[in-house]
Fold these 2 entries.
Entry 1:
Amino acid sequence: MDPETRREFGDFLEQCKRTGDRGTKNKRGDYTEAELQKKAKEFLGLTDD
Amino acid sequence: MISFVDLRATRERSSDYLELRAYLQQLVGQPFRFLRFSYGDELTLHVGQPTQYRSSRLAHLSRGSYVIGARASYWFLRTHVPPAIIVGDSRPLSYASKHRKPLTPEQVEKSELLRPGARIAGVDAITLGTGTRSAYGFGLSLSLEDSASLLVLPAPRLGRNRRQQLVADWEVFTPYERYLSVGPGLRWSYLSSRMATKAGA
């Protein structure tokens, strides 16, 4: 992931959290490593999500 | 000596303080647009011209042509109206004292504490160190024309895991497909923002 895509991915994750698509890592809704991998695929359009 | 710095060129791993200050000057005169928190409660300042995200997943949002990211650093945002300091550090949001009122990222974003359109009047890098310790990093100081200001200070590295140790202290993404990555330590780079490198961690 290039730096700009990585930065946008951070914004995407935050938007997901705020719209209720939260991770299970902690009470803040952060994502586990496995969840981050899945979100990365979703962000990059590598799945049908 | 008089010299020329091409903002479209790249610069790998430097510790030259004057050159770092030179790269930062491209922010002067750019209008502040909005604050946005990225994943991990990273404060980002969007300045310059409104621009589309590259990702279609974020097509409903706009971004600034410049994005300043505090990464994992401490930051202090001084506002003029009302006169206040917003503090961002690594302590949990539940931390509070009678002198500090906890805020959520959403509250800060919606607060309109910074005036959209206010231009950056000055920006500089600060060499950080103490009398008994040699310099250990670069901070960022930025002021807007309406007296609001932002100070970004690298957080201590102790207690960070290996991956966190590689994360930059702060960054500036530019409209030239370049980004300034500062830290950890007294090092910085000005590289392509569209090419994956180790420094892009």
Note: Residues 127 and 138 of chain B are 5 Å apart (CA to CA).
Entry 2:
Amino acid sequence: MTPDTRTAAIHVDGLSRWYGVTRALTDVDLAFGLGVTGLLGPNGAGKTTLLSVLATVAEPDTGRVSVFGLDPRDAAERVEIRRRLGYLPQELRYHRHFTVAGFLDYVAILKEITDRRTRAGEVARVLAATDMERLAGRRVRTLSGGMRQRLGIAQALLGEPELLILDEPTAGLDPEQRLRFRELLSDLPGDPVVLLSTHQADDIAAICPQVVVLLQGRVRFTGTPAELAAVAAGRVWAAAERDGRAHLSWRGGDGMWRAIGDRPPVGAQLVAPTVEDGYLLLSHAADGR
Amino acid sequence: MTDTSATGHSGPDLLAGYAAGAVDEAAAWSVEAHLMACAACRSAIAGQVDAGRLARNRSVLLVRAAIGDDGLLARLLRRCGVPDHLVRLLAATPSLRRSWLLSVAGVLAVVTGEAALARYGWAEARVPRPPRQEFLVPFLLVAPLLALASVAAAFVPLFDPAHRVAVAAPFSGFRLLLVRTVCALAVAVVPVAGAAFAVPGPGWLPAAFLLPSLAVCGLALAAGTVMRPLAAAVAAGTLWALPVLALAGARLPLLIVQWHGQAVCAAVLLAAAAVVCLRHDRFELGWTR
């Protein structure tokens, strides 16, 4: 089946996945449109499982997935999905003896870019996009963690994918590189569907018009970053003293205690919630604390 | 380059052809390589080719240089007409790397040397002992297993650090497996046959290893359609080792490569080939239901 429109994007219905006796995903229903969607959740929340299912790497135990109207259960449609896909797995490992350009060339072949000249041009393009041109001839084994992460992002960009799945792309990047990554996402050609998982709430606030919070394998929130922040509206306080009744509290750099709770600490002032506050409150509620 | 002046510069016809996009790929590479280093020719062609194209071509050339040399085997395969992109895929096959081949040669040297010493003794090189077969047992055991190990390293995901990227790519998993395993097997059989010439056994021994090696590797691939690849390789190796050791216990180790054994190996190879053909879709990894 050939999809007639990209606006269908991605639909996930009733998705569940077990690892032995552990349930990684439970009845996940989601829809993703064009643009960047951020998946937020702690370790073990099911983010990586969900992304690997959408990348056609892992099979769900139950449920259905539709990617651009294509069904990954069908072999031909699965290949078609892969032709449109760029995927950065979590903790991608590399052939360490390859050069940076050699590894990208290898992945480009796997993406069916077989013409030598076209392939070299595409490798040059993603090297420039990730600011790695000067590293093209370096052996992968000599790269730092941040450089390897950029290489992982670069390989995902090969072929100008319509669906970009990035599992913790900012892990290991320094602040400047994270900003460069945000620029890169903003400049992607063709307005692709981008799904990225992260632990960094500020990444979500900065680059994701849509956010999904996964906790304990279940979808706990879908909406905009502003809506996620609003979850904590009226429940975030700044106080001079620590309040033991707060669900969560920590001392900021200014010496003031930031508290998330249902009741205001003594002498506290209500403050504007952030995306992180909303996420922490959801996480606290899911833990049943 | 087909049109180079006596001064080493690209000739006007070649430059004009390049500017018009009318030269073949090899000539285009050659012109671009020359343009990178020659300001006079860049100046001569500047009016015919836009600066953006020259800059892109320069990046492409740098990428080609950064990809690096694939080695002797790759050059040989290209000369034999194997497409460049298939040759590049072999660069990610550990059993085609020099370190692996040296390890294979080392193991073969040890078992061959052991057989020679057992046959002739340390100080009796010119006076062979009465012919016995037991000294051949280590070689009989190890030689096909080395071929199996080479093939296993070419298709067991454990040996492919970027396996998840390969799974999510559209390139056929079965095709990738065939390219890698056939080449790995062909390369592994050469030192095995060479060592068989050096072993003090019957003259037909080098030829007698081909079929068992193919059968054991075929069995591993066929078993890989019903179980995990690593388990399949271990199972196939075990099914070779058990009869070799049993026949060694009966003081008839050569029976495994004599005509009875060859017949069994031929039957196993044919059955394995049939299974692989019928179940090749099992090598399309990832979401396969």
Note: Chain A has a mean pLDDT of 90.
